[in-house]
What we know:
Layout: E1 41-45, H1 49-60, E2 64-68, H2 76-84, E3 89-92, E4 106-111, H3 116-128, E5 133-135, E6 148-152, E7 155-159, H4 166-178, H5 184-201, H6 208-221, H7 224-228, H8 232-239, H9 250-275
Parallel strand pairs: 1-2, 1-4, 2-3, 4-5
Antiparallel strand pairs: 6-7
Helix pairs in contact: 8-9
Organism: Arthrobotrys conoides
GO biological process, one term: siroheme biosynthetic process
Catalytic activity: precorrin-2 + NAD(+) = sirohydrochlorin + NADH + 2 H(+)
Amino acid sequence: xxxxxxxxxxxxxxxxxxxxxxxxxxxxxxxxxxxxxxxxxxxxxxxxxxxxxxxxxxxxxxxxxxxxxxxxxxxxxxxxxxxxxxxxxxxxxxxxxxxxxxxxxxxxxxxxxxxxxxxxxxxxxxxxxxxxxxxxxxxxxxxxxxxxxxxxxxxxxxxxxxxxxxxxxxxxxxxxxxxxxxxxxxxxxxxxxxxxxxxxxxxxxxxxxxxxxxxxxxxxxxxxxxxxxxxxxxxxxxxxxxxxxxxxxxxxxxxxxxxxxxxxxxxxxxxxxxxx
Length: 276
């Protein structure tokens, strides 16, 4: 028997709810994700300038690439990537054929060719095979878009205009990159090292929430340049406060480290005198 109860009527009432605190919904956007394609097969059709740009993104993400393009259609940069990354790129020197998409291991397909009819045929074939596809410069035939990316070590920032203005995306990306605090990339690396050390002393899954809260306090309490300059010794001193949920400030950590270093030096000297 099918229930006629309205599912919305089952939602509990929240007496202290304040909808004004919730972020507004702006329809028409894209779901921006960091797509993990490491060691996954990606088909790239075309070898021109746009394909060269796509290769930079894919190689930086450690993808396994199959590039399909006649030798006469290769851009110099594309040819260079084929020669220098042969372990990552499988080159097929001919035009695209439908059988190229029959491999079950394909994760996504990119086209970068100056042939609208052929591009649409590839798009249609991908849809029939449930393969995510991006047709360069044709937003309606894209399941996902490439944005303008700023890369600095582990830091990646993407600016997307939803396919409306690639040039503007690049200009905005440069402005965002120029506004980043000094030492941002180095700070991210050091925070990553601190997280690994924290997991070493608090490995249990049940402590996940506590680890996240403590790491958040560290990031909020320390400046970017201070985080970037953290040493392993600083991290050890900092981690001493984890159990009690305490985050020592930069100056306190440095002072404690300096005092301990002096004590160790005194002990070493005393040992040398004793040996003498």
